[in-house]
Design brief:
With 109 residues, the protein is mostly beta strands. The protein is built from no helices and 11 strands. The strands form 4 sheets. A 3-stranded antiparallel sheet has the order 1-2-3, with no helix packed on it. The model has no long low-confidence stretch (mean pLDDT 89).
Length: 109
């Protein structure tokens, strides 16, 4: 059994010729193929594509709730992780800690 790519149900079962099916949502997939819609594409402020593990630079001062000072423009962030959603970059910033950022406020280093 393989987990469903659409609903994450753990009950995916083999249907035919390397095709799996989900009994909960009816999704059918081939686990050996990457679907184009499953590939996360995130662009920085200049339109460059970002990948997991890239380094980025913040392009404007970003205020942080509960912090006395903003994160300054020009701060370099290493080893980013891409996520789905509004704040699509997870990272650790020295002196601040774990943060979620929007890709529109960074550029690729």
């Amino acid at each position: 059994m393989k987990p469903c790519l659409k609903c994450n149900s753990p009950y995916g079962y083999p249907l035919r010729d390397e095709i799996y099916a989900c009994p909960e949502c009816g999704n059918e997939w081939n686990p050996n193929e990457k679907m184009e819609e499953d590939i996360l594409k995130v662009l920085d402020s200049n339109g460059n594509e970002l990948n997991n593990g890239d380094s980025v630079i913040i392009i404007k001062n970003l205020p942080v709730k509960g912090a006395p000072k903003p994160i300054k423009a020009g701060t370099k962030i290493k080893n980013i992780r891409l996520t789905d959603g509004d704040h699509n970059i997870d990272c650790k910033i020295d002196g601040v800690g774990s943060m979620a950022l929007k890709s529109e406020f960074v550029r690729k280093a």
